[in-house]
Amino acid sequence: MTVIDSVSIYRYKLRLTSPIAWDRQARTHRGGLLVCLGHGDYSGLGDIAPLPGFSAESLTEAQAWAEVLAREILDSPLHTLDLSAFKIPPSVRFGFELALCNLDTAMKKQPPHDVSAVACCGLIGHQKNQQIHLAHSLVSLDYRAVKLKLGRQSLEEDLNTVHSICGKYPQLEVRVDANRSWSIRAAKKFVRATRHLRLDYLEEPLKDKTELIEFARNCTIPIALDETLREQDAGKYHKVADVRVLKPTLAGGIYTTLAHIERALQENARCIISSSYESGVGMLGLIELARKLPEEIHGLDTHKVFERDVFSVPLLLSGPMLQPEGSTESHEIDQSILHRVWHAKA
Predict the structure, then answer these.
(1) Beta bridge partners of 9
(2) What are phi and psi of 121, to 5 degrees?
């Protein structure tokens, strides 16, 4: 019988190229955990990286949950293990499910059957007076789509930015993310003012999500939802979500994400796989999920914020097309940046 005969949990801390404000605090590093599940000489890695300000669980809490789950599954049969039976936070579920998938792949000794490139959307953040310049930079790097973060300036300034980018780069697929910053009145004004533009979608436009159904009735831009899909009353808003932005680290793991994709396709909605600043281990897992939606341009343009990764030899995990070679297990981990916090053998 094939059982999990070892579990190790490591902490990592990756330096950012410049500070990022998460949970209202400028942070210079991204912390997370790698979980390693083993059987004999084979192993599979997963990434547990709750995002401050977005994940309900902290990294400390995620580690505590990971240690509990590790004790539970040690010496369990690999091919009949069902993690859905365990009530665990989303980031922990994603990490352990990814580790199980990678262990299974390693034991089959088969190269990945799908090594196709994944199209990636460039991200333009809230950098005041730099958004148009950033759009130019992304176009010069052959990005076909950009997501433009709006909502921190006046509506007039946001509209000027959108019109400028769409006017200069008509070939560019522009997505707008308002981060729940607008009143329904402001959002309607934005839609009217951009009615002649071909925006790919408008993401989370409203401060008050209860007005989404009313707003959607006369909205001529496809509506995308992200945070709303992870809240308890998400079901009532599925019908207004033309596009569903799925973040496996925040939304409950690989199989929850696959279920979301299946339901969305049945309802004729699009799905975008989106990253939450995971390490390279997590990114490789997200790229595999994105390959199941080859027609889409995915939100995976976060890895370039790290000065270094958990891999000894850096992988090309940023750019308009992502096509890393090999599985996670074919790349050596840089042990110098890991600190083992838990280990046990059956």
Answers:
(1) 35, 342
(2) -90, 130
